[in-house]
Amino acid sequence: MQIPILNISQFKESTPLNEVYINSFSKHIQRNKDLINKPHSHNFYLCVLFTKGTGIHEIDFDSYAINPGRVFFLKPGQTHFWKFKTQPEGYIFFHSQEFYDLKFLNHTLHSFPFYYSYQNPPVVDLTSQQLSLLQLKFKEAYTEYMQPNLLRELKIVNLFSDIYIELTRAYTTNINLEKLKTSQYSQILEKLEHLINNHFLKEKLPKFYAQELNITTKHLNRVVQKTINKTTSQLISERVILEAKRLIVHSHDNLATIAYQLEFSDYAYFSKVFKSKTGLTPLEFRKNYN
């Protein structure tokens, strides 16, 4: 069993726009409860603002508290689910990369720190003043989405851009901007993450990725070390372990089959590597999570 990958068309209103969806959060979870009541991933970018409610939001096995004034971001492929303690309210929107990037040819989604790298936290907390401002902007985008007005799509993408700029300013308030700016090193890291996502099953050595990027392995390690204080091997290993966690928890395959899917020589070796990275054997992880 594979993790469900949801697409935008599954959430559409009666008068949809291509590649975009906006809703109040309470209506969203009520209307789509059969789609989102279990862990799933998306093939689009997602942003949600909470104005009320508490609970837990799990993203790729990291748990984050849900509180008023908290905003979450998800990139395509990330697995997540919600668990609410009190009734949530707020706004949610998602869109394809093309919907945004084709309108802003000189300014892509990856310019925003929360979408630039998987290493950057997928969450930001707003002050009461920031929350008041952004709540109005989310509401305006939702209102525009619900009305078939002239140039509606252009208005929405400009509102998204405005929201993303305000969220970037909030996101970077207490973060070293030098580490977040889209420098040459940052661009290499972004390309590396993309390559790892596409090839981690077959290619587990830094040399392959350095060759794909047309740089030396030494320089690639320097880039990763300078930007996120890790090694290339660590990034590859982390991606393998993340996929292992997803398969262990969300599939019904036996653990030996999962080891085979992840290109390990045998289950014993897979179990040893997994325990060295997580402190638990695959079986212990599955039991504890469930």
From TrEMBL:
Pfam families xrefs: AraC_binding, HTH_18
Domain HTH araC/xylS-type: 190-288
Entries under Gene3D superfamilies matching the protein: Homeodomain-like, Jelly Rolls
Keywords for the protein's UniProt record, in alphabetical order: DNA-binding, Transcription, Transcription regulation
Stored PANTHER family: ARAC-FAMILY TRANSCRIPTIONAL REGULATOR, TRANSCRIPTIONAL REGULATORY PROTEIN
Name under which the protein is recorded: Helix-turn-helix transcriptional regulator
Source species of the chain: Gaetbulibacter jejuensis
